[in-house]
Design goal:
The complex is a heterodimer. By secondary structure, chain A is mostly helical. Chain A has helices at 8-29, 33-36, 50-58, 61-92, 98-107, 113-126, 133-137, 144-156, 159-167, 172-180, 185-201, 204-209, 218-228, 233-253, 255-267. Chain A contains 15 helices and no strands. A two-stranded antiparallel sheet of chain B has the order 1-2. The chains are: A mainly alpha, B mainly alpha.
Chain lengths: 268, 315
């Protein structure tokens, strides 16, 4: 039998510290108001579902969640499609200007968002997209990171695969969609997970591009809610739990892809 | 695709056709390549590259970002040099980065090494360390505001339990910036750990075995074999965390709004204030260009340094 490792003595308290904020958020979200205002704080005596009902009832939380979902899903689909096409082109087709285009695209990865956002806002205003979901979708529909990721993985696939399909008379587009992409499911999942997380949790761009409560994403709505209801913490915590539920679900079910994608984003 | 039809080699003998089939094929490649790449390239160009140039232009204008701007010459940069709030914010940003980056790195490496061992429950520990990664900054801000609440917070309860006085944290001008450091370290630790774990898992097992056969203890083989091999990961994290630290905004906005008494007004927060509170878009763009310059210089210096210090090739 193996002796239990002494590392548990460090790792267990560490894990407790790391999950405490989240667990505490859950506990406060099911406490009554009185229970949340005690010192020292304690555990709730029962489950106060009313906090969740009130959160859904008193703020347009439902439509905020809906807006976030629309933006995230459209951006995920856009990235999967457009980054696959472009990644394939940069990896496999020799075309004029491809090197310059690729380098310029990579250069945008180095640019901090704060320098992009002011002109972006002017652009969105002239396109008539300010204060619509379109303003949140358009700049995130294709990302340089996504193209780079896809290109990297296309270059690792053996060329023989597509040559066989091409000799059989399949077009490039068909080869891409029926031969190559099915082999790249893990990479596509990686890109999907990362894009979803990023758009779901994005804050600064929605903050300046959107004002009306009706078009707010859930992060933005939550923040405005925090400003307006500093007294009712259980209700605020219930809203926060609801806002994080989708990404937590994605995280737990796609953890394999998630860890891989973070590592890929970093080391590759 | 029509491009493919053209690309099909002609049955005509090569010698008679000269170089035509080759040229056609190339032309078809150009067309197909751009056809595939254009949607993404155009989107990224328009929304990612054009704004960089535009921002630079804005920094030489007087503009409120709504109505057309007027040429300002070097006014915005002159204002920047003379603006004590800008320099305050710059110093605060550097203090933040100087704390945030080393603390995150110093915590992440030992944790990654521990999580790289074959022990029971390691999956749970990895999960616990990386779950803050997916938690949005807004949610994190709300959670930490409550944990650090001066009246009812859990942290003050812990202090109280060991006989220490209650602290203000986010509401204390002397502590707010450090509270933001603690909160962002919590949020980024998982990222750094995952990067280190990936690097550690790439260290060939036989290297460790060889070193232990040569009489290296666990500590020595870590110090002399694993640590040099994860140097590229350290270099990457140093750059990545610094870039993100210099751009700190969300975490401040959702906890302190730059306060109390400007104690957490970092550079990007100053930029935001100038653009959307004072409506001085040109000046905000100038601050943005300054931040960009700092990030660019730092990144290049770091990349050069990395190239010089990493002797080992990690696959």
């Amino acid at each position: 039998m193996r002796r239990p490792s002494a590392l548990h003595l460090i790792l267990l308290p560490l894990s407790v510290v790391m999950v405490t904020p989240l667990v505490w958020m859950l506990l406060v979200s099911i406490s009554t108001q009185a229970e949340s205002r005690r010192f020292p704080p304690g555990l709730p005596s029962g489950i106060e579902w009313e906090n969740y009902l009130a959160a859904m009832r008193d703020a347009p939380l439902g439509s905020w969640l809906g807006n976030s979902l629309v933006v995230s899903v459209v951006c995920v689909v856009g990235n999967l499609l457009l980054c696959s096409l472009a990644g394939y082109a940069f990896a496999r087709i020799r075309f004029i200007g491809s090197k310059v285009a690729f380098v310029l695209m990579l250069a945008t990865l180095m640019v901090p968002f704060q320098i992009v956002m002011l002109p972006l806002l002017i652009m969105m205003r002239s396109l008539g997209l300010v204060d619509t979901l379109g303003a949140l979708i358009a700049p995130n529909l294709a990302t340089a990171f996504g193209v780079f990721l896809m290109r990297q993985f296309f270059t690792t696939l053996p060329r023989e695969l597509e040559e066989a399909a091409r000799i059989d008379g399949a077009s490039r587009l068909r080869t891409l969609f029926q031969v190559l992409l099915p082999l790249m499911r893990p990479t596509l999942a990686t890109l999907a997970v990362l894009t979803f997380l990023q758009t779901w949790n994005d804050f600064l761009w929605p903050l300046i591009a959107v004002q009306s409560p009706g078009v707010m994403t859930v992060q933005l709505g939550l923040q405005s809610f925090q400003g307006a209801h500093t007294t009712n913490w259980p209700k605020l915590m219930a809203s926060t739990v609801l806002s994080q539920l989708p990404v937590l679900l994605v995280f737990f079910f796609a953890q394999r892809f998630f860890v891989r994608s973070v590592a890929a984003a970093g080391i590759k | 695709m029509t491009a493919d039809l053209q690309a099909r080699p002609r049955s005509r003998p090569q010698s008679a056709g000269g170089r035509r089939p080759v040229d056609r094929r190339k032309l078809a490649d150009h067309a197909a390549g751009w056809g595939f790449a254009a949607p993404a390239v155009v989107l990224i160009g328009v929304f990612g590259l054009v704004p960089v140039v535009w921002s630079f232009v804005l920094s030489f204008q007087h503009t409120d970002l709504t109505s057309p701007g007027t040429f300002a010459g070097g006014d915005n940069y002159a204002k920047l040099v003379a603006d004590p709030l800008f320099w305050d914010a710059a110093v605060r940003t550097l203090v933040y980065v100087a704390l945030f980056v080393p603390i995150t790195l110093a915590l992440a490496l030992p944790i990654a090494v521990m999580l790289n061992q074959q022990i029971r429950g390691v999956v749970f520990y990895r999960l616990a360390v990386s779950v803050p990664l997916v938690t949005s900054t807004v949610a994190t801000g709300i959670m930490f505001s409550w944990l650090a609440n001066p009246q009812f917070g859990l942290v003050n309860a812990a202090l109280d339990a060991v006989g220490l006085p209650k602290q203000g944290f986010f509401s204390d001008p002397d502590q707010a910036l450090f509270a933001v450091v603690a909160m962002t370290v919590w949020g980024w630790l998982g990222f750094a750990v995952i990067i280190y774990l990936a690097a550690l898992q790439n260290v060939p097992k036989d290297l460790i075995e060889a070193s232990s056969l040569d009489g290296c203890g666990r500590a020595r083989s870590f110090w002399h074999v694993e640590l040099p091999l994860v140097a590229p990961a350290t270099g990457f994290l140093l750059v990545w965390l610094t870039i993100n630290g210099l751009q700190l905004f969300d975490a401040v906005y959702v906890t302190t709004k730059g306060g109390p008494l400007r104690a957490t007004t970092v550079l990007v927060y100053h930029l935001y204030n100038e653009a959307f509170v004072s409506f001085d878009g040109g000046y905000a763009a100038a601050i943005g260009c300054a931040v960009f310059l700092v990030i660019g210089v730092f990144t290049l210096a770091q990349l050069r340094f990395n190239r010089r210090t990493s002797h080992y090739e990690v696959r």
